[in-house]
Write the structure tokens for this entry.
Amino acid sequence: MGYSIKKLKPAKQRANPECAERAAYSLTDLLHATNPYQDFDHTTYPNDLSGWGSDSPAFENLIAQATSLDLIIEVGTWKGGSAITMANALSKHGKNAQILCIDTWLGALEFWQNHQDPERYQSLQLKHGYPSVYYQFLANVCHAGHQKRIIPFPQTSATAALFLRTHGIQSQLIYIDGSHEEEDVYQDLLDYWPILAKGGIIFGDDYTWDGVRLAVTRFAKEQHLKITFEADKWLLTKK
Ligand SMILES: C[S@@+](CC[C@H](N)C(=O)[O-])C[C@H]1O[C@@H](n2cnc3c(N)ncnc32)[C@H](O)[C@@H]1O
């Protein structure tokens, strides 16, 4: 038995906004029978927040401007740099929202192309051929003290979107920074647009990459949306 987006449409239309809100608040329990941070010894890992576009002022600006915010969704987290920047901004502005981090922690195409690349391939921290960078992410969240705010969801962006839709969960702010291949970015936009609440913003990194720009412009054109920018990030707003 599997889920089909087609079958989910009527369920989404019936979704009660109060249910969606309740689901967002108990997202950790919904996803994890055992808290992922429980008994994890982060002290054996350095605090290593290396990433890309992770400390952009766009994160704080968007968080400060958001009128209602209970859940931020991030697609593509890596070591947690951008998620921790957002968590810091939430604390600074006294907002209680949580951040759901969706990532396979297996890297994207460019991470597997050059064995000499210290920032990508070597940072996957392969153990017997399988990446273990997830634990560096988890340690970074602990170093920053954001275990209550940041919820890991180690899953593909497509499957995670289906999970969220089956539970009627919506978000006011969705950051797309997973695969940068055109068809993948376009699919992420298709998958996460229905999860974006009315008045919410979906935004992303690396508009200078051909794959990202082509996907965002194609999606914006089809949906009659205007692309705007906040610092180095592209933005699409749901009216
Ligand atoms: C550019 S990095 C994210 C950088 C991060 N936002 C930061 O601040 O440093 C892209 C991430 O997307 C993840 N990723 C790529 N394709 C994915 C997919 N289809 N589903 C889930 N995660 C994916 C990779 O594992 C990688 O960690």
